[in-house]
Design goal:
By secondary structure, the chain is of the alpha/beta class. The chain contains 5 helices and 12 strands. Residues 145, 147-148, 150, 176-177, 179-180 line the site of zinc ion (ZN).
């Protein structure tokens, strides 16, 4: 049967900020390139923190990438001879990214998706939960909690404000574990009145009321 000759599948690399997701995406992409496979990498246009046409991890490892406004543009931009498609910062795409990934996989393409699985409140982020569900392979990376040194799964926003993640402002975030994570960071207004963020290991007080 025709489909038996195809090897399309979806891999998701997720985790908090500073967990090395993009670094892992770049590593997998480079390995495919060493194997002389044609690779194309896409990212949402919102993410222009380093360079407009590259995906770059915090350690400056980078590969060329194509910024797109909407997920469906990816289908039009993938070349016939492309064997591997990388998608970075997938949490910022619309839900159309799920259909795009499925279609690419059915075309026989290996799809490598990297993204934040949770927003700074610790809630599932955008299309990521559905991408995790349909993927053949999921790699969940952790960072190190800057408060207690445990493996960190959350992205702590240090100052409150609008939006789920302020792209390009990594200094506004810290990696935190479940227990040191504060889902409701103090606001700039609170800062100006002299309140400061706690950096002591959590004593249980920040566990959301629903879970106590
Ligand atoms: Zn911690």
């Amino acid at each position: 049967m025709f489909h038996r000759s195809l090897h399309g599948f979806i891999e998701v690399v997720c985790g908090s900020m500073f967990s090395g997701k993009t670094e892992e995406l770049v590593r997998r992409v480079k390995r495919a390139q060493f194997g002389r496979l044609k690779v194309q990498v896409f990212k949402p246009k919102i993410d222009n923190r380093y360079s407009d046409d590259h995906v770059q991890s915090h350690d400056a490892n980078r590969v060329q990438s194509i910024p797109v406004d909407h997920a469906k543009e990816i289908l039009e931009l993938v070349d016939d001879n492309t064997r591997v498609v990388g998608i970075d910062e997938a949490q910022f795409f619309d839900d159309g990214i799920i259909d795009v990934c499925n279609k690419l996989a059915y075309r026989g393409i290996r799809v490598i998706v990297a993204g934040l699985d949770m927003d700074f409140r610790g809630q599932p982020f955008g299309p990521m939960p559905k991408l995790l569900a349909i993927a053949e392979s999921v790699t969940k990376l952790s960072a190190i909690c800057v408060v207690c040194g445990s493996p960190a799964s959350r992205s702590q926003r240090m100052v409150g404000g609008e939006g789920l993640v302020a792209v390009g402002a990594n200094e506004m975030y810290e990696a935190r574990c479940r227990f040191c994570h504060e889902p409701n960071p103090i606001t700039l207004a609170q800062l100006s009145t002299g309140l400061s963020s706690s950096t002591q290991p959590n004593t249980g007080s920040t566990i959301p009321a629903d879970y106590v």
